[in-house]
Request: fold
Amino acid sequence: MKAWRSVVLVVASLLASSVASTGALAQGSIKIGILTVQTGPARPIGDDIVAGIQTATQMFGPVLGRPVELVVEDSLFNPQNSVTKATKLVQQNQVAGILGTSTIETFALLPVADRLGVPIVTSNSGSAAITREKCSKWVFRTNAEDHMSIYSLQHLIAQTPRLQNAKWFTLGHDYPWSRLVAGSVKEVKGLAYVGETFAPLDTTDWAPFIARARSAGATAVIMPVTLGTPLLQFIQQANEFGLTKEAVLVSPIGLPDWLVAKLGAVSTSVVSAGSWAAWRYEESDSTTKAFNEAFYKQHGRVAGMQSLQSASAALMLYSAMNKAGSIDPAAVVKALETIEVQTPVGPLKFQPGGRQALVPLFMGPYEAVNPPRYGAQYAQRAEVFPATKSLPKSASDLGCKL
Amino acid sequence: MDLNFLLSNALNGVVYGAFLLLTSLGLSLVFGLGRVVNFAHGALYALGGYAVIATMKWAGVGYWTALLVAPLIVVPIAIVIERATIYPIRSRSDIYTLLVTFGVSFVLIGAIEYVWGTGTTLLKTPAPFQGTVEVFGNQYPIYRLFAAGVSLLVSGGVFAFIQWTPIGLRIRAITDDPGMAEALGVHTKWLLTIVFGAAAGLAAFAGALGAPIFAVHPEMGMGILLDSFLAVILGGLGNLPGSAIGAMVVALTKSIGGGYIADWSVALLFGVVGITLIFRPTGVFGRGRVA
Reply:
């Protein structure tokens, strides 16, 4: 009987310690939500975003001594679904922060950010309003906003005689950003601006719009076209029609690297006026190089533009948690306001009194990489355009009232 | 904007119209024969593009062989779809088949994404049609001209088949009066299955032929499906000559409109269709006659 009692006691204590340790592990991990597109033609963008955060998480190691667990939710690039999934991440998964959002998701989350009550660090949102008139205590941005890209575009034109002497034409999608880009080119003094055309968002055949650019005699075509399949189709068809022989194609915010790989040699007809990230920044930055190597080891491909951006956002968030000494949302937000972190897009900190990171842009042409690196045969040459030149005003002057 | 610009855009319109013709004829035939509004037509078009890629990759053949094989892969798939999903509900109202084909479309796109992923694939312009040729003072891609020519030839073949063969006669009979045709011994249900397969073959051929121009991705059929429906509605549902003219009107409106008033080109297209339907509610050529 005594022996039985002992066995029961040992088993019971083993069970109890097992349950306790499982509980400790579950409590021990810090959950971070990734809200990005995981279906449809924009999925490669979402995949790059997730991959970048995965590598950054692995490189950073434990946060506050606890492992980080990533919870990925598909936004479907749909505002209503984004709110639903973000609510699920916060209430059900109890994430300590949200990463990975692009403009559509970020705009959807802005009105509910107070209710969500966790820091959101976006890395792929262009619209300036997010950190200007619509800025929120909870929403930070690590990529450059649209107006910053405009400064780098104007700088690129000013320093490139070929572009200065070109006949400029804007060929983009029919949405506000295209008009902003067109307006910024027109602002450059002494530039020959020969026309513009804005195609419907569902355009698959770019022939009429290419014909318009050629008819205007364009020798530089700036292309504010949605990243992804539409941009791929446009550049391919521009090449098919021989437009790339007559004109240089200028991308206002650069090309994702998966798109560069698909375009191959055709990508060399493109110049980026201000990419949000560029893996060849590694030639002058050891943090970028270390990230690129870790990314290649983990994913077997080159770290694309969105991967570098999302990784930088993740590093900012994790560093803020460490600095805050907890995952308390208010404390992390406060820490985010003051930290400075070495990231794959350079040293980052947020604008005082605002939510926009002082992040550089990367200008330069796409060219062959000899010998290929990380499996990439073509990539953008990366010339840094610092935030001091692209974000000259203070946050409050830009309309951000927190 | 000079005359050459107008003519270049008109040429673009004719080229796109030729593709649209292939897809619109299939839609129109299937509706004319079985009153089936086939929302899966766009997905079958996409399947054609992927069939080319699969054939090139897995059989190791060139584009031209793959172009011919692609419809042969898609036709049996379409026949199975028709027998499994449309055939059992043939006697019900049109809305049932509309909903079923809508669902089939999602299943097909999902299957494509499962097998090939969601990315976009570019195909190189096949030899010997690379490069451009000068047309109306502008460089124009040779392959586009070739593809448009082939599309027009195939469409002409479809018209000839409908007009001058015994099966074509049966198709016209069913479209005119299904009850009378059946009473006279025409097996309408099997004929619809065959025509559904053939229409899918036309869509797949268009998808395969257009792959080097428009790129291949799972949702590539959505845009052309919408344009095809506009063409079919404009010409008259089930009316083949009407669909052919509708395809050209839609394509020319998009192309010339895109050239001159890009940001209003979609409004222009829907305006043209809307105004036409106000005055001719059953389309320009009326409903239900294939020839």
